[in-house]
Write a structure and sequence with these properties.
The complex is a heterodimer of chains A (347) and B (225).
Chain A lengths: L7 E11 L4 E12 L4 E5 L6 H8 L7 E6 L2 E2 L5 H8 L2 E5 L10 H6 L9 H14 L15 H12 L6 E5 L7 H18 L2 E6 L2 H7 L2 E6 L2 E7 H6 L4 H7 L6 H13 L2 E9 L5 H11 L4 E10 L2 E11 L3 H10 L3 E7 L4
Parallel strand pairs in A: 3-8, 3-9, 6-7, 7-8
Antiparallel strand pairs in A: 1-2, 1-4, 4-5, 9-10, 11-13, 11-14, 12-13
Helix pairs in contact in A: 4-5, 5-6
Chain B lengths: L1 H6 L1 H5 L1 H35 L9 H16 L2 H7 L1 H8 L5 H25 L3 H9 L4 H12 L1 H23 L5 H11 L4 H29 L2
The chains are: A alpha/beta (347), B mainly alpha (225).
Membrane topology (chain B): Multi-pass membrane protein
Protein name (chain B): ABC transporter, permease protein
Family (chain B): Belongs to the binding-protein-dependent transport system permease family. CysTW subfamily.
C-alpha cells in the first residue's frame, strides 16, 4: 500500500435525477480531494446531496458527469468485473446496518470473502480476527435480530473491513444510534483510522460526529460544497452562514454580535475576536498579560469548544479604537493564539 | 370399520376406482408441482432482477415477462383447460387423462407462482442488496446469496399457498376427464347422486391440505431467524 493507494479524487462530479416532468440536480460540480488516511467529514442537512455524493465513490450511484479517481484510477471507466474488484477495496457501512438476517454474525462478516480464494477455514479465521478487532468475538454465532444497534453496526464495520479496504464510507452510520453508542462507534472508527491507516469518509448531519474525529470537513447544501477545509478551521472560523448553523453551538448569535458592535462603535471602541489553545494558556492569564500592553480592554464574550481532541477558547474583547493595532499585534505574536479578527459592523 | 362402510356404501363398492383417483390426484399434484416450482421460481426471480434499477435491469425483458404473466393470470382456469387442448395434444398425444392434465395445470399455475415468488423476493430489504453490491458481489451472487437466501422463508410460505391452490386446480381438471378426486366426485358423486363419494373425496382433499400446511409451517419455522 503506497501513499496514493487510498487517495480519492472527485472531479466535477454531478448527479442528475431525471423523471418525466423534471430534472433534479442532486449533486452539482463537486470537487474534492481526500488524501490517504484522512478522516473526512461530509456534513449537511437532509436532502443536501451528501448520501448521493457518497454513493458515487463506489459507484452505487453513477455520476451523470465527472470522474471518480481512486489511487489515480478513474473507476467510472471500468467494466463490470473490474468495478466489482475495486468495490472490494472500499468498505461501506449504513444507517440501518444492512446485515443479512438469515446469517450469523460470523457468516455476515465472511460474506464479502466470497471471491477471495480463501478456504472456508481461512475465511472463518479472518472473520473471527475482525470480530475481535471490533470487540464482538463472543457473539459470532448470534443472529442480527439478537443484537443491539451498536453491536449490529460493529458487525457491519467488521464486514466492511473483510477485504482489507483502503477506504471506508460511513453513510449516516451513527444516525440511528443513541449518543453514547455513537461515541463508541466513532472511537472505533478513529482507532481503525490510526491503526490501519484507513481513509474514513463520514457522512452525517450531526456536528458531534464531525467534531471529534475528522481532520477535514466539507459542508454541502443543495448539491454543492459551500465550504471545506480543516475541521478546526471550520469550527472556529466558519465563513458561510450554513456552516455556522451546522457546526457552531449557537452561542455566538450573529444578531447579538451585530448589536454589540453597534453599541461599542458608538463609544468609539472596536471588538476583536481571537482563538487560543486552552492547553497553553487560560483566559485569565491571557487577559492579564494583554492589559500590560493595551489600555482599557473589556471582555465581552468568551466560549470554549473541544475540536479534534483539543480544547479551544474563543474570546471577544472591546478596546479603544486607537488601541486596535496594539491589541492585534500583541495577540498575533502570542504563542497560544491561533487567529484574531476585527469584527466589523457589516458581517 | 363396518360403520364406516355403512356411511360410505358407494365408496366401498367403487373402492378400486376411489383409491386409484387418490393416486391420480397425487400424481398430478407432484408432476405439475415440480414443473410449476422450477419454471415459476426462475420466472419470479427474473421479474425481480430485470426490473429497472435492479441488478440485471433490462426494461425490454421485464416488460415482456410482466405482460405475459398478466395475460395468463387473467384467463379463468376452466377456460384455459379448453384453450390449451391443441398444445396438449401436441405435447402428450391426447387431451384426455391425467398426464394430459399436467399441461394446463402447469400453464395455469406457473404465472400465479411466479407472482408469489416475485412478491416474496421484493420483500427482501433493498438495503441488503445495496450492501451486497457495495461489497463487490456479482448479480448471480446477489440472486443466490441475498434474494433467495433472505427470501427463503417467504418463498416457502407462498409455496404452501400455491400447492394448496394447485390441489383445487387438479379437482377442476377432473371436471374435464383428467381423473383424480375431482373427477370421481363429479362423475360418481354429482352425476350419479352418490353423495357419500363426494363427501369422502372432499375429506381426503382436506386431509392433504392439512398435512401440507402442517409440514409447510415446520419448514417456514426452520427458515426463519
Amino acid at each position: 500500500m503506497n501513499e496514493r493507494s487510498g487517495m480519492l479524487e472527485l472531479e466535477q462530479v454531478s448527479v442528475d435525477f431525471r423523471n418525466r416532468k423534471q430534472t433534479i440536480a442532486a449533486v452539482r460540480d463537486v470537487n474534492i480531494t481526500i488524501p490517504t488516511g484522512t478522516v473526512f467529514g461530509l456534513i449537511g442537512y437532509s436532502g443536501a446531496g451528501k448520501s448521493t455524493l457518497a454513493r458515487t465513490i463506489n459507484l452505487l450511484q453513477r455520476p451523470t458527469s465527472g470522474s471518480v479517481k481512486i489511487a489515480g484510477v478513474d473507476i467510472t471507466t471500468l467494466g463490470q468485473r473490474e468495478l466489482r474488484q475495486w468495490r472490494r477495496k472500499i468498505g461501506m457501512i449504513f444507517q440501518h446496518f444492512n446485515l443479512m438476517a438469515t446469517r450469523t454474525v460470523e457468516e455476515n462478516v465472511m460474506l464479502p470473502l466470497l471471491h477471495s480464494g480463501l478456504s472456508k477455514q481461512e475465511k472463518r479465521q479472518k472473520a473471527d480476527r475482525l470480530l475481535k478487532l471490533v470487540d464482538l468475538a463472543d457473539r459470532k454465532d448470534a443472529y442480527p435480530s439478537q443484537l443491539s444497534g451498536g453491536q449490529k453496526q460493529r458487525v457491519a464495520i467488521a464486514r466492511a473491513l473483510a477485504n482489507d479496504p483502503q477506504i471506508l464510507i460511513s453513510d449516516e452510520a451513527t444516525s440511528a444510534l443513541d449518543p453514547k453508542t455513537t461515541q463508541n462507534i466513532l472511537q472505533l472508527l478513529q482507532r481503525l483510522n490510526k491503526q490501519l491507516g484507513l481513509t474514513v469518509i463520514l457522512i452525517t448531519h450531526e456536528m458531534e460526529v464531525v467534531r471529534e474525529i475528522t481532520n477535514q470537513v466539507a459542508v454541502m447544501d443543495h448539491g454543492q460544497i459551500i465550504e471545506q477545509g480543516p475541521t478546526t478551521q471550520l469550527f472556529l472560523n466558519p465563513q458561510q452562514p450554513l456552516t455556522r448553523e451546522l457546526l457552531v453551538d449557537g452561542d455566538q448569535g450573529t444578531e447579538d454580535m451585530a448589536a454589540l458592535i453597534k453599541q461599542y462603535t458608538a463609544e468609539e471602541r472596536s471588538l476583536v475576536s481571537f482563538t487560543y489553545r486552552e492547553q497553553q494558556t487560560d483566559l485569565f492569564t491571557l487577559l492579564k498579560t494583554i492589559e500590560r500592553w493595551v489600555e482599557q480592554i473589556k471582555l465581552v464574550y468568551n466560549n470554549t469548544q473541544r475540536v479534534e481532541n483539543q480544547l479551544w477558547g474563543t474570546a471577544v474583547i472591546a478596546v479603544r479604537n486607537d488601541q486596535v493595532a496594539e491589541l492585534q499585534q500583541y495577540v498575533a505574536a502570542h504563542p497560544a493564539v491561533v487567529a484574531n479578527k476585527l469584527l466589523k459592523e457589516v458581517d | 370399520m363396518q360403520w364406516l362402510a355403512n356411511l360410505f356404501p358407494n365408496v366401498v363398492s367403487n373402492q378400486t376406482q376411489f383409491v386409484e383417483s387418490i393416486w391420480q390426484t397425487l400424481y398430478m399434484l407432484f408432476a405439475s408441482g415440480v414443473l410449476v416450482g422450477v419454471i415459476g421460481l426462475v420466472l419470479g426471480v427474473a421479474l425481480v432482477v430485470t426490473e429497472p434499477g435492479q441488478v440485471l435491469a433490462n426494461a425490454a425483458v421485464y416488460q415482456v415477462l410482466d405482460k405475459i404473466v398478466n395475460v395468463m393470470r387473467s384467463i379463468p382456469f376452466i377456460i384455459l383447460l379448453a384453450l390449451v387442448t391443441p398444445l396438449t395434444k401436441l405435447l402428450v398425444g391426447t387431451s384426455i387423462g391425467t398426464t394430459a392434465a399436467i399441461v394446463p395445470l402447469v400453464i395455469g399455475c406457473t404465472p400465479f407462482y411466479a407472482r408469489q415468488v416475485q412478491g416474496a423476493l421484493a420483500s427482501v430489504d433493498q438495503g441488503l442488496v445495496e450492501a451486497a453490491v457495495a461489497m463487490g458481489l456479482s448479480p448471480v451472487d446477489i440472486i443466490f446469496k441475498v434474494y433467495l437466501k433472505e427470501g427463503a422463508a417467504e418463498i416457502a410460505r407462498t409455496s404452501i399457498v400455491t400447492i394448496i391452490s394447485l390441489i383445487g386446480l387438479t379437482a377442476m381438471a377432473g371436471a374435464v376427464g383428467a381423473g383424480g378426486l375431482g373427477d370421481i366426485a363429479i362423475t360418481l358423486g354429482y352425476n350419479q347422486f352418490e353423495n357419500d363419494v363426494t363427501v369422502a373425496a372432499t375429506l381426503i382433499i382436506l386431509l392433504m391440505v392439512l398435512v401440507i400446511q402442517f409440514f409447510g409451517d415446520l419448514v417456514v419455522k426452520r427458515l426463519t431467524h
